[in-house]
């Protein structure tokens, strides 16, 4: 399950540097999460770091990108292999 940032985002800039997969970037109006890069921090941390630091709690699970923990682990492995290649 990739995460998403809702329109309650206040553009406080704290989530982007916390993402170990570089999945968070500034969109047209608010920050956005690339579901192809978001592993909910699987492989890096026990909990999603962006959710931990968000002061307005605007980062829920994206219902359009539901993934099992195993799928998230596979995505993490693939992203790490791509980084080192």
Automatic annotation (TrEMBL):
Record keyword Iron present: yes
Keywords: 4Fe-4S, Electron transport, Iron, Iron-sulfur, Metal-binding, Repeat, Transport
UniProt xrefs under Pfam families: Fer4_7
Source organism superkingdom: Bacteria
GO CC term, one of those recorded: cytoplasm
InterPro entries linked to this entry: 4Fe4S_Fe-S-bd (IPR017896), 4Fe4S_Fe_S_CS (IPR017900), PSI_iron-sulfur_center (IPR050157), YfhL-like (IPR047927)
UniProt-recorded name of the protein: Ferredoxin
Naturally occurring in which organism (per UniProt): Pandoraea eparura
